[in-house]
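URGENT: need a sanity check before tomorrow's submission.

F., can you look over the GNAT family N-acetyltransferase record below? I want to be sure the sequence and structure line up before it goes out.
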Amino acid sequence: MIEPLRARTSAVVVECVDAPDDDTIAEWDALVATTHGTDVTQLSVWSRVRGTQRFRPLYVLARHQGVLVGGALVLTRRLRGIGCVGYVSYGPVTALESEARAEVIGALSRALADLRRMRMLFVQPPEGADDVSRALVARGFRPSAAGIAPAGSMRIDLAVDEAELRRMLSRRLRYWTGRWADRGVTVRQGDERDVPLLAELMYRAATARGYARPPHLGYLTTLFAELTRTDHAALFIGEVNGVPVSADLVTMCGDTVRGKLCGFDRDGDGRRLSVPAAARWEIIRWARRSGFRWIDFGGLAEATLRDAIGGGVRDDESWPSADRAKMAFGGAAFRYPPPVELIRPAPLRLAYDAARRSPLGRSLLTRARIALRSNGSTRSEARP
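Structure tokens as predicted:
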């Protein structure tokens, strides 16, 4: 089904398609895979993963002189009491630069603003695409404080040798890289048989720290099967003397590896021996050997970003422990472009703003946010 929408400029045509043909899907996936800063959440495979949780895809596709040069995968879902809600993660993407890029971004922004089926549309542009945020705001979107996406993250440049990567580690981690083997710590790459283990370790981590309930096993099984079938995910298991104590699922898109899901048994020797750090170190080494340029271990809190970017701080005891663990690997913190939102009609926008000022309203909005970002259950422990 094609939306009743065709946005045109002098050289750009945009169409919105619910079910593109196979050739178009192949074109789209190739574009995403070669565009820096985007993510698996813009690939067609992600629509199949999220389809198990009642999300439907809408492809907004831009062609410049007949060639597919940009677009966005919008995941949509009907929420009770609201209507159709959409979310664009790490998009829209565009392959062109300079004036042609501005033209494509302008056409895509116009098309997204004209999606009349959407009551709410949240957009997190990809890395480095601040011009996308500005273009969307010019089309009626506004900065979003909904928490749909993290404010920023950290990444490690893998274009150096392993010795330099080791020098970038904190003093404590440099010590452990020479001790893990002697202490019986090993890291192996997992397969589909380890997905129940990932689910169990995520549950243990959530229980120990009072986090939200992690995705259920059925969703994790689908996610792993779909992403590994297309070579977009890998699973790493950290063990102590052969006993699994940590699990990290990473995704791969283009030149970047990103942390997606993790679990850890905090009891026993796993914590004392820093097994999650051993797994991440092995992921770094594997990513470099596999030819990836960047590795991103997930979102950072606002306070961490402010200190790390503005003040050049490498570590601070006031940071969340998860942030300190990520920054110990020596990566550079960075901000994503500002997320934006479009909420209509005006009465719904007013109700949305009013809801954010009450405890009950904030609770309902949290449920809606999690429904968009997670596994479709009411709570999730997925990384941003």
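My own read: Residues 1-5, 375-384 have pLDDT under 50 and may be disordered. The first strand starts at residue 2 and ends at 8. If you see anything odd, call me.
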